[in-house]
Design brief:
The structure holds 2 protein chains of 2 kinds. The relative contact order of chain A is 0.11. Chain A has 15 helices and 25 strands. Chain A is elongated, with a radius of gyration of 29 Å. In chain A, the strands form 5 sheets. In chain A, strands 5-4-7-8-3-9-10-11-12 form a 9-stranded mixed sheet, with helices on both faces. In chain A, strands 17-16-18-19-15-20-21-22-23 form a 9-stranded mixed sheet, with helices on both faces. Chain A has a two-stranded antiparallel ribbon with strand order 1-2. In chain A, helix 12 packs parallel to helix 14. Chain A is of the alpha/beta class. In chain B, a hairpin with a 4-residue loop joins strand 4 and strand 5. At the A-B interface, strand 6 and helix 5 of A face helix 1, helix 2, strand 5 and helix 3 of B.
Chain lengths: ~500, ~110
């Protein structure tokens, strides 16, 4: 009978990597990290060791490319004080970087015995359990005999296995897809292969990590985005790895507008993700302002606004026009506004930044204005994954979110943004222009509200000094949502009867 | 230099210092007593005896298994490696020194 025993793994503590690798790197084995120039191989290798050192696990870094002095300096920006670890006897370098000043002469047979002796000695001296070798391709600068290196790679992995260390071996590749390494052999000498990619996607760098194989153990398949973050290093973002396991809250919160709360039969839910869709100028930013206003009345609430269309000053001025003092709220610690250009970062970095802000400010509700603007930051697939990731994040923290989306046409219609996120959101509110006999009016309706009854009426609203005022239901008009309103009574006078109880409006 | 005392296999240390020309200080790094190590040691002695005046050179053989730190200091990756420390500039020859012409070229002799 076959018995399957999972190979034990050592957690890398590299954010997200332990999730996609289902536990970390296989203990006592060598994992090949293959990637093109600038794909983050050295950082990954160093980070694996650095997190070990932080936990008191010793490490040896064998460098074939950069000098130890360069590495110490370059890796400092991630907050790793390698010199201090060296002084504590936790970290040792084996410096196998090429000496450019004096290229050697070759005469007769040789092997890499000296290198192996040095690695073994360094591992024993500091008692290392983690070893990184970066990068094996650079040894070609010193040893031109590719056939010899292939033979020696076998000896090297045997040595690493014999001394019982968990090792990362990095290797260059010239293309993003195709051969794994320069020698075409590395993937056969190691049981485990990780591929790092650095792709240009819509004029933006998109980094991904893929576990190609982990012999005899499970891992997540396919490419996962990652980012290199100052002071943190590599952060892997497993966008599609979220479970649909969030607990649902029945607690209601105010949307900031009492009439809208009534339309929702009691307000929003505490962990609800709501989408507000409307054409430009239809009142989406106003909805955000109303939503933010609600925290004023609740002592425990705080709001965090991510603005991608307007600057902080514009938002503050708009809000002041609707009777909400953003500046005072910020001073009171009830509000934080984070404004940035959507194009300034890729989705991974936007997500990391948003998570960092949420962790730092601990809001009870967030608003993103607008998702449509963020759509410009990358490909459609990445966008959808980004939406899933951000909604999962807020749901896990049981905070509510209001997302806005701009429709491309003035009347009716929907946007790509909506088709991507509507199924993910718990509630959808539509803001629509309604044309009638020379007037442009605004209508609001709750299209969907998961877990609650809600009104199905399309109601008129107008925008005044105190924000949004929701009025009567549109009657005798149909086709608002499709953008082609049809009025039942074609006489000009019938506008007077549009609302059973007109409030002095023409 | 105090670490000279660490050397385990001083094969030949010359007694006299040459009065003319240059003095050669040669260090041969090997990994254990392998065939390549023995071949390199033999070849080096033959070359020195043939091309250099007695007393104008010193040879030290360093086993990197016993002295990995010395190999670390000199950044030795492959063995055997011969380092000509003197005369300046420093020269490196990698291999068992069986290609005599290349050794002579590398050492700048003849």
């Amino acid at each position: 009978m076959l018995e399957f025993t999972e190979i034990p793994k050592v957690p890398t503590r590299i954010p997200g990597l332990d999730m996609i690798s289902e536990g970390g790197l296989p203990i006592g084995r060598t994992t090949l990290v293959s990637g093109s120039a600038g794909s983050g191989k050295t950082i990954l290798a160093a980070q694996f060791l650095a997190h070990g050192c932080e936990d008191g696990e010793s490490a040896v870094f064998v460098t074939f490319e950069e000098t130890p002095a360069d590495l110490r300096r370059n890796l400092q920006s991630f907050g790793w004080d390698i010199q201090a670890w060296e002084d504590q006897g936790l970290w040792a370098f084996v410096d196998a970087s090429a000496d450019i000043d004096s290229p050697p002469t070759f005469s007769g047979d040789y092997d890499l015995g000296a290198l192996f002796a040095r690695i073994e000695s360094a591992v024993r001296t500091v008692g290392a359990s983690r070893v990184a070798l970066d990068s094996i391709g650079a040894i070609l600068n010193q040893i031109p005999d590719g056939r010899l290196i292939r033979a020696e790679l076998f000896r090297l992995t045997a040595l690493l296995k014999r001394i019982g260390v968990t090792a990362l071996l990095t290797s260059e590749r010239s293309t993003e897809h195709g051969d794994i390494g320069k020698f075409g052999i590395e993937e056969f000498v190691t049981d485990n292969v990780i591929v790092l990619r650095n792709l240009l996607e819509q004029e933006r760098r998109h980094r991904t990590i893929e576990i190609l194989k982990f012999r005899g153990t499970h891992h997540l398949k396919g490419e996962t985005p990652f980012s290199v973050v100052p002071r943190r290093g590599i952060v892997v973002i497993p966008l599609s790895g979220y479970d649909l396991s969030q607990v649902s809250s029945n607690l209601r919160i105010s949307s900031g507008n009492s009439e809208l709360d009534d339309m929702c039969h009691g307000g929003f839910f505490r962990d609800m993700v709501a989408l507000v869709s409307g054409a430009t100028g239809a009142g989406k930013t106003l909805m955000v302002t109303e939503y933010v206003r609600a925290v004023q009345d609740s002592p425990d609430e705080k709001a965090l606004v991510f603005a991608y269309e307007e600057s902080r000053d514009q938002l503050t001025r708009n809000a002041a026009g609707w009777g909400v003092d953003y500046e005072q709220m910020e001073r009171d610690g009830k509000l934080r506004i984070v404004a940035s250009y959507p194009e300034s970062l890729g989705y991974e970095d936007h997500l990391i930044k948003m998570k960092a802000e949420i962790d730092d400010f601990q809001p009870t509700r967030i608003a993103i204005d607008s998702m449509s603007a963020l759509e410009r930051a990358g490909s459609q697939r990445s966008f959808r994954e980004f939406v899933i990731a951000i909604t999962s994040t807020v749901k896990a923290k049981e905070i509510s979110a209001l997302l806005t989306s701009t429709t491309p046409t003035l009347m009716g219609g929907s946007s790509v943004t909506e088709s991507h996120i509507s199924s993910i959101t718990d509630g959808i509110i539509l803001l629509r222009y309604v044309e009638g006999f020379g007037d442009i009016r605004r209508g609001i309706t709750v299209l969907k509200l998961r877990g609650s009854q809600h009104d199905n009426e399309i109601r008129e609203f107008d925008i005044g000094e105190n924000g949004m005022r929701i009025g009567k239901t549109f009657r005798k008009v149909t086709g608002i949502l499709t953008g082609v309103p049809v009025h039942f009574e074609s006489e000009i006078e019938s506008i007077e009867q549009l609302f059973p109880d007109p409030e002095g409006k023409a | 230099m105090s670490w000279v005392r660490l050397f385990t296999v001083p094969v030949l240390v010359s007694a006299r210092v040459g009065y003319l020309g240059l003095v050669f200080t040669l260090k041969l790094y090997v990994t254990g007593e392998t065939l390549a190590s023995r071949t390199a040691i033999r070849n080096l002695h033959e070359i020195c005896e043939t091309y250099l005046d007695e007393g104008r050179y010193t040879i030290e053989v360093i086993n990197v298994i016993d002295h990995p730190q010395l190999a670390e200091n000199e950044k030795i990756v492959a063995t055997p490696t011969l380092i000509r420390e003197l005369p300046h500039p420093m020269q490196r020859i990698i291999g068992d020194l069986s290609d005599r012409d290349r050794v002579l070229l590398g050492l700048d002799i003849a």
